Amino acid sequence: MRDVTAGSEAILELLPMVFADPGEARARAEHVLRSGPSPLHASIAHQVLGIWQRDFGDLRIALRHLRRARDLAARAESADREADVLATLGVALVHAGRTRQGVASFERGVARGSGHTRARVLYRRAYVWWVLGRHREALEDVRRALPVLRQVADDIWTARALTLRATVHLALGAVDRAVADFTAAERLWDTTGQEHDKADAVESRGLAAFRSGDIPAALRLLDEAEERYAKLGTPTYNLSIRRCEVLRAAGLAPEALAEADAAIAELDRIGGQSTRKAELLLAASWAARSAGDAHTAIARAAVAVRLFAAQRRTWWETHARLVLIEARVAAGRRSGRMVADAAAVAEKLASFGSPAAPEASLLAGRIALALGWTADAERHLAVAARSRYGGPPPARVTGWAAQALRARAAGSRRGVLEACRRGLDVLDDHRMTLGASELRAHATAQGAELAALAQEVSLAQGSPRRLLAWSERWRATVLSAPPTRPPDDPALLSGLTAYREIAARAEAARMEGRPVPALEREQRRLEREVRSRTRHMGGAAAGAGYRFDVDRLLDRLGDGRLVELVVVDGRVHVLLCGQGRVRRFAGGPLDQAVAEAGHVQAALRRLAHPGAEARLPLVEEAGRRLQDLLLAGAVPHLGAGPVVIVPPGALHQVPWALLPALRERVLSVSPSAGSWLRARETEPPPRGRPVLVRGPGLATGGAEVPELAGRYGTATVLEDDEARVPRVLAELDGAGLAHLAAHGTFRADSPLFSALRMADGPLIVHDFERLARSPYRIILSSCETARLASVGADELLGVVTALLPLGTAGVVASSAPVNDAAVVPLMLALHKGLDAGLSLAEALRDARAALPADALHQATGWAFAAFGAA
């Protein structure tokens, strides 16, 4: 260790070292105190330890060190030393929730300091004003400090002041000013060794990217900042707060809530900053409300309100009150008092210049509408609607939602549809900036209300065609955009390889009955790493999405029918497309249909095992009940041709071939009418070759594959050690027909990690997304490969929806666990039909009919469905 007891200059170096190398600074300061220093040197050492504990440890210990540093500075009779310590102590007191004492400490510090020291004190007071939400005072103190810091060429403190001013600008919605200050600060940081400050600058740029509407860049920068902090061994509470905000805006509210709660627990464990705890509670309450957990949101927000009030942080308290009122409304509470409270919050947020003010006005208007107070609602909604023409996408969407509600209250159906169209256009452009299919899917949740309002008006107008168009407007949008391939990122590729190896080892250990907690922890860590890196992808240009055309759909259907199921206000409506027109029939309650579908899925799982034959009549009866709920009066009008079913996300698990009216038909399923139309118009590859893959561990050993290999003389066959993920992907790319016999697993918690088991581990959805062109037709002879997770407004994530945008026109997959032995004859019969020139849907119908009539084989046939149009 370098000798830091020789002189003041060496000891003064410890102060900037706290943010360059925190651990080393702490060790050196403790060494100084053991060496019997003078009061001046001891004051510096205690201040260093106080800063370390304040920012990275126990705030109570920090206050003890800083009070000792203050007293020693007074004994040393150094006014500037005392002023500097008073500023550091002031920051710690405010973070401890002792706002009045902290501000008083700053008053003494400003009075005691002079010149350069006084400028540093002013900067730190500006930081405290920002913490307290007093942004104008913060900007004023930075304005006074910056010229002095620049004059003495203090690059470190000048960069800190610029970073702080940029952060304040962001809080006020002035993104361009913030970016300019961040850029200037970064140029200065490049000339210093302040690694912690550099990490903070990257974190701040992430926040600026988010405020500019660039979520992928924000996530990338926040992840980079976390890596930098990790190297320094410093906690990341502020980073967690910012990441929660970005995750929530990206539609990943449960993930944001988990991060906030984990950070709160860690902060409590070490006795950390009370101010940070309040901010984390606010982040957790926002996340819980967005995740639909109103009661958790209320609990977190109520504590945050109390803490902010005790800390005299009015700006923060007002934001916490907003989420508290929103959560109470989500829990079903409405009253005149809540209208007044929301209006007061909106007024106060507007006075702060907060971008959240329109959201509060919209909330007041919603509550007033629910109470029938139309005049009050109009007043508040009119204020909220002003944001529709400017600001970031969420603010504009808020404005268009307010405008749509105004139009509905005024009885203007045209006004409602125009506002919905404009709001969804804003979200379309925003969604297209996202590269990851996961983020695109979750982002649609922000447009759910607008889409529902437009459907409600279309239904009231009695126009089935318009109801179809609006239902398609915000359904399966992930499939409507050009896919973004993951970059050739070596870290991502190595992460995928490592994940596959660990997952394979964990699976082997489980099969042997050995405990695998360490392997499972590493698997979860690698999942987080892969997920994070894929979220960094940017999307295509705005306006690059696909527009649905009803006339083209009707023309392409020929003598077939397309049945789109639409849910409006909890009831299913059947839109029957065909014969050049769209007709509507009333269905049943959605919740009843979902419950019935769940019962059927459970029964199919039992029928996959011998000995459950007695349940077959019960399953068939459930199919009749589902038909009454979901097809109702449309059944007599289905015609004799092919039928395409387009269910909402909540009904994607229905085994449609079980319904009596569909059992003997050429039947296919599609996430949306638009995706079926695109599949119908997809051309097969000019020299598409067959590929047959046999994974390990199948009860039958994938018995159909050798027979199919003999049938397709030119097929590429991958089995045993050749059925490894890199080789499988290489052969699948551009194939005309692919047949994969492998164990499949569906991950409801993380659908893009749903997998097929290969020789070297799982082939996951993230792997499929790397294909330049997925096979034109693909048959997944596996369990649960057709299962999908419903996210966002009406989006589906899983293996099938990953393949459809990548060039696949048709998929056969199973929505339930199936019996391996019973699958073999089904697959052989299916390929026999394909040999005869049939489509996947035609071949699957004939294959079902060729199966034995016992319960096991019948259940197997119903579990499989044809997706797409090939």
Core attributes:
single chain, 870 residues, alpha/beta, 39 helices, globular, TPR-like_helical_dom_sf, CHAT domain-containing tetratricopeptide repeat protein, CHAT_dom, TPR_rpt
Present the secondary structure layout.
Elements: H1 8-12, H2 14-17, H3 22-34, H4 39-56, H5 59-75, H6 79-95, H7 99-112, H8 115-131, H9 135-151, H10 155-171, H11 175-189, H12 195-211, H13 215-232, H14 237-249, H15 253-270, H16 274-290, H17 294-310, H18 314-330, H19 336-352, H20 357-370, H21 374-385, H22 393-409, H23 413-431, H24 437-443, H25 448-461, H26 464-473, H27 490-511, H28 517-535, H29 550-557, E1 561-568, E2 571-578, E3 581-589, H30 590-607, H31 616-630, E4 643-646, E5 667-669, H32 673-680, E6 690-694, H33 704-711, E7 716-718, H34 725-732, E8 737-741, E9 744-745, E10 755-758, E11 761-764, H35 765-768, E12 777-781, E13 789-791, E14 795-797, H36 799-803, E15 810-814, H37 820-835, H38 840-850, H39 855-863, E16 864-868
Parallel strand pairs: 1-4, 4-5, 6-7, 6-8, 8-12, 12-15
Antiparallel strand pairs: 1-2, 2-3, 9-10, 10-11, 13-14, 15-16
Helix pairs in contact: 3-4, 4-5, 4-6, 5-6, 6-7, 6-8, 7-8, 8-9, 8-10, 9-10, 10-11, 10-12, 11-12, 12-13, 13-14, 14-15, 14-16, 15-16, 16-17, 16-18, 17-18, 18-19, 19-20, 20-21, 20-22, 21-22, 22-23, 23-25, 25-26, 27-28, 30-31, 37-38
